[in-house]
Amino acid sequence: MAHLCEMNQIGHVASVKSVGKNLIVRIASNANYKNGDGAWVERTNWNEHTIFERQGGLLKWASESLKPGDLVLVRSTPFQTEWKRDGETHYGQTFAVNELSLLTAKSDKKEKPEETPK
Q1: Of 13, 40, 60, 115, which is most buried by a Cβ count within 10 Å?
Q2: pLDDT of residue 106
């Protein structure tokens, strides 16, 4: 029997940074909800997705093309990481990118012609 564990996220790019030979793409997604009083509460989910060096083509494209504010779809495989620091074991979560697609590039308002007031 096959198993599946995948993280899918649609959101806006917050940052793209190189860490060693890998690339970290930080993405923000809205996760608003109604509280017990019926009022909407704004909440943002922030996730960091890793593109590894071995994914050369995707890594190059992402580092050259993605900008903060771009709307993207990312599919990643989550896995737990473990390391020791000062004799204590620490745990983390890594989202290894499988697919990354640009849905809408952030528009630069300076490039858009201003609308004529009516």
Answers
A1: 13
A2: 87
